[in-house]
UniProtKB/TrEMBL annotation:
GO terms for molecular function: cysteine-type endopeptidase inhibitor activity. The keyword Signal applies. Gene3D superfamilies: 3.10.450.10. This is Cystatin domain-containing protein. Residues 1-19 form the signal peptide. Keywords: Protease inhibitor, Signal, Thiol protease inhibitor. Pfam families: SQAPI (PF16845). Residues 33-115 form the Cystatin domain.
Length: 124
């Protein structure tokens, strides 16, 4: 079910961008519906993958912003701003980039997870 939702979400977003002729192969397409369950799963994955790499126990507090780039056949990159933190400290905002292959069993790979203050200023 989650896989189908993600594929449909990707198709709808790309179709609407192409219909408006606003797609830029090198640019990011804003995602308006950031409360979509499939997108929340990608945000949760980014925090979990970062935890595994860094040995931390962050939890996703909120998905603040999302953009996507790519083609369904080559995979889709999601650039997210997430609020995350552990129980001992307040949450901070992070930029996560996740590569997703929607036609597979929801294969995802965390490309980067950095504090927003280290992210390029043109995004946040």
């Amino acid at each position: 079910m989650k896989l189908e939702c993600l594929v449909v979400l990707a198709f709808v977003l790309f179709a609407s961008a192409v219909a408006r002729k606003e797609i830029d192969p090198k640019g990011w397409i804003p995602i308006v519906k950031i409360n979509d369950p499939a997108l929340i799963e990608i945000a949760k994955f980014s925090v979990t993958a970062f935890n595994e790499w860094a040995g931390l126990t962050f939890k996703l507090q909120k998905l603040l912003k999302a953009e996507m780039q790519g083609q369904v056949v080559n995979g889709i990159y999601f650039r997210l701003i997430v609020a995350a933190g552990d129980d001992q400290s307040s949450s901070n905002n992070y930029q996560a980039i996740v590569w997703n292959l929607p036609w597979t069993e929801n294969y995802m790979n965390l490309i980067s997870f950095i504090p927003v203050h280290d992210a390029p200023p043109s995004y946040y």
